[in-house]
Amino acid sequence: MLTEEERREIEAEFHQYPQKRSACIDALKIVQRRRGWVSDESLRDLAAFLGMTPDELDSVATFYNLIFRRPVGSRVILICDSVSCWIMGYERIRELLTARLGIELGETSADGEFTLLPNACLGACDRAPVMMINDELYQDLDPGSLDQILDPNARRTDSSPMTSQ
Amino acid sequence: MERPLTKNIRPDQDPPNLKEYEAAGGYQSVRKVLKGMPPQEVTELVKNSNLRGRGGAGFPTGSKWSFVPMGADAPRPKYLVANADEMEPGTFKDRLLMEGDPHQLIEGMIVSAYAIQAEIAYIFLRSEYKLSEKRLRRGLTEAYEGGYLGKNILGSGYNLDAHLHISAGRYMCGEETGLLNALEGKRATPRSKPPYPQVSGLWGKPTIVNNVETLCNIPHIVNHGAEWFKGLSHTGEGGTKIYGASGKVKRPGAWELPMGTSIRELLEGHAGGMRDGFKFRGVIPGGASTDFLVEEHLDVKMDYDSVQKAGSRLGTGTMIILDDQTCPVGMVHNLEQFFARESCGWCTPCREGLPWTVRTLQAIEQGEGETADLERLEHHARFLGPGSTFCALAPGAMEPLQSALKYFREDFERHIREMRCPWR
User: Fold this and answer.
1) Of A10, A160, B60, B90, which alpha carbon lies 20 to 30 A from B400's?
2) Homologous superfamily, domain A4-61
3) Does A161 have pLDDT greater than 80?
4) With an 8 Å Cβ cutoff, are A64 and B186 in contact?
């Protein structure tokens, strides 16, 4: 069941489009923001709410890499694996991350905290290599900064985006 | 030197709010066109300015607009979309414009929408650009409050609503017709053309899709004229360009410079040259989907025609530098992995051909390549080239591959001969 709040938030997007179903990507993201991911049940409820079949909505949901159809950790790491980051040391950063978290790309750590996903160019190529954790961008990554970012005692709790410094 | 696009950008500070933007001359172009410029005159002006699309394709902006049906019989509503889905690897210019001066984009959208008499505008923004999202949201709210958006803008009788659409990933959304499908809430597969979006775009209505940097130029062209705009450039192509450089250079970054600034000036003057201990081997001049250029091309002027004559494309104008300690085969392998993953799967050559090139390149990189692989890669460069696929994704993917085979052939052959990657 969609909650009353979810319904209201989704309905607030309808005015942007001539058809309800056109708001389906917004709707998937609204549910995902509140529940972490989009389960089969959420998908069926959303489809009914938007006047689509579950298959139609799933064909959309599975196309976009930032819609999660499986549970993810509370901190989703999007590591940029595009060319500028690759030149500047992406592979080393990936190796350190997978070793440290004990997971491969596409996996979630056993404690449910981290999910590690490869991502297309994050548009910060002058500060490569880079990655995002939830809404925050981390630039000029090296082994030292990676330790600091992942250190549980140094963790930032806010999700404000970091600007170029 | 004039830098119209970045004059308001203050690094590491909040962008100008509405008041500050207005105090710096902001929204004058909206007043100007609404007070006394017929829409077709705005389009004519942009045509005369020689502004070409800054998203990569370089299509003349005014001509693009001129295909939109005008007059009382035109289908309605009409749409204007800002393509803010910047995802071309190596490209980080639109982000600077949106984070640094969001009102400039909004102003450019209003004037452009007026030129085609659109009623509804969208900013199609990639999800990862969180700071752009925050600043554009604030900018749109302020623009509504200031009377620049909504009903009866500045008492002119012209109405325009603007929405911010936050996407959910996939490079294909940056492709013009893929973007339209994504905005309609569908998979971002390409549409067949014709009909072109100018005639039948969003929900079947006339639609213009322009890149962020393109739209940011419009207010300045309206305020200062076509001749002024052409005068900003070193060559016949109008305006300035946001150029960039990434890779093993001393000062990676982005700079607004006259259109037609040479690769050498960008590399040595602005990026500070190569880092100590690294030598220049090549450059992808405008994002992942452009052909390599090499040392003999360093004096090529970075404008659409000059780069094309040199055998590549200006693309997004943000250069990726290949150095002597980075494996060219590995670099092309990385590029093709990107394109293979981002292929939407709609048409067979792209869906099947790109993974094939990835596997072939991987074999060569791992020392399992054979001489015939080079021919196979060349076949793919032809079969996935222009005219064989639905959209430009696969042809774009073939540009760095075909040029790497040409300029770095000895490196490919050495991998095969020595059965290993000499850089690993």
Assistant:
1) B60
2) NADH-quinone oxidoreductase subunit E (1.10.10.1590)
3) no
4) no
